UniProtKB/TrEMBL annotation:
Family from the record: Belongs to the methyltransferase superfamily.
Keyword Transferase: yes
The keyword Ion transport is assigned to this record: no
Pfam families reported for this sequence: Methyltransf_29 (PF03141)
Single annotated GO MF: methyltransferase activity
Localization per record: Golgi apparatus membrane; Membrane
Source species of the chain: Nicotiana attenuata (Coyote tobacco)
Gene3D superfamilies the record matches: Vaccinia Virus protein VP39
Name of the featured protein: Methyltransferase
Membrane topology: Single-pass type II membrane protein
Amino acid sequence: MKGLSGDLLRSTTVIKVLAFVFLAVAFFYFGKHWSDGSSQQPLFFDSRQNSSGPISSSAVSLSSNFNKTFDLSTVINDTNKQQAGEVSIPPPPAVTLSPPPPPPAVQHMGLLDENGVMKEDFAVGDYDPDVVENWPGVGNETDLSENNKVVKVKKFGLCPESMREYIPCLDNVEAIKKLNSTEKGEKFERHCPEKDKRLNCLVPAPRGYQTPIPWPRSRDEVWFSNVPHARLVEDKGGQNWITIDKDKFKFPGGGTQFIHGADQYLDQIEKMVPEIAFGRHTRVALDIGCGVASFGAYLLSRNVLTLSIAPKDVHENQIQFALERGVPAMVAAFATHRLMYPSQAFELIHCSRCRINWTRDDGILLLEVNRILRAGGYFVWAAQPVYKHEAALEEQWEEMVNLTTRLCWKLVKKEGYIAIWQKPLNNSCYLSREEGTQPPLCDPQDDPDNVWYVDLKACITGLPEEGYGANITTWPSRLHDPPERLQSIQLDAYISRKELFRAESRFWKEIIESYVRALHWKNFKLRNVLDMRAGFGGFAAALIENQLDCWVLNVVPVSGRNTLPIIYDRGLLGVMHDWCEPFDTYPRTYDLLHAHGLFSIERKRCNISTIMLEMDRLLRPGGRIYIRDSLAVMDELQEVGKAMGWHVSLRDTSEGPHASYRILTCDKRLLRA
């Protein structure tokens, strides 16, 4: 049985071997058959002797047709044709047409697309270094480094104690003495020192200076040692302006014409003309001859920003008291030049015993009021000619009524000691006056927003035919609505003005939110803020949005576009200024100075240290400076800041360490003579 099974097993194995051999031979035969008649034969074996040795060997080799493709139908047809005696004509080579290359992509540079709309993502593009180096004005500035050595700025010394309240352009005694006349108030205007006599030291604080009392307490009391002057108490003590209580000045809230308090006075004005609507229709006001600024201080609680102005006269410290209280104010005088504010800036202008003769010189001073008063705005006059019946005062009243009538102002209400006029909304009244009526309309070519060292003009500033200035929205929506006066601003863009406005607002909103979040700005005792290059006022608007309890004076430099009308249309305060000259305010009046891109522009016109010395004069001890500017100026700014005794710190912007901008933060220390 075992032998039988073994035989079967062996026979099965033999059968398998034979089958394998048969298949191998069959595959070889078919391979050789298909290779006949072809110049390329598939070689499965290479039986040639190895030239490197005497021993013959058979090695497996790859076919020469490996990795090639053939059209079998063509091969078969060619074989059949050859067998039939036909001449084989090779087919023409196949021509493969490659698709044309795509057209080069059009690369759009700049902020705007083809429709004039600002793009969210834009490319700046490459620059040509040769063009940049040879650009006019670039590369001509003096660098701080000489042969890779940093030039140190010599430390600035303290000014004499007599200069502790020094205002350079208003305290220039030599220039004032040389004036041909002072009868029109010329001595209260700007007379800046020559370059070689400019401030070159640090204005000291008075002895006993203390950190200012924070807002809102400062509205009612300030430290005596910070403004050590009792003259106003002696002159105005009976009018409820100001009193002394131990080591503090107290402000009861009264004024010459409202000794019972500003709140009651404001209620009376709004009751006389309900359309004034403080905080909604009336957002921005001007108080002329403001005293200690109680009128503006109490309007703040009604959402009204009031700029309080007064000259540096016998009551020389009234603006200093206003700023120490935390109320918007600056030194300014109605004299021979335009005020540094644009046309149609204020919804309400107030004069309470401001000691100005409005009818002199054909009413030239009231014509300046008319220029800066918004179309449809109100002029509030509280003075003796309104209510007293003395002959001289009655004559003054008649002159005032006559002048305002020729200005097309409407006497809306006269009650007690207050008279309120309203300016027209358009030019229809001006054009319907009798021929030859004085004062005339100003030349249409006259720019009513051109204010830097421009003489007063005895003419009526016409209103824009488009209604610009009169068609603003109410507060608070006007803070965010792009005003129609954008179209009158001289910018390179036209269609995109509103997009530029919104883009600036978004830019500062994000930055201030990051400052509040990362730098804890809400913990700072910010009250008086100066934005030294304000643009459209986006920085100030962002502070309001983030509910920081402060006010901002927006400065528009003369070296740039005049955006002041837009700032006022938004319900903010601003002023024109040239930072190559000193600013018209007292020392130690601001908690925060903000400068965005200022120095990289102004360094071409004036000395950086001159601007920074002025910043030191304006800043309160313990105050802060935020400078956001290009890397090119940061080394010099740091050196000058250190030379003034500031604590300086350089930070990256949100774009990171490779951005071309940096933020320089500076803290001012208390220095005394």
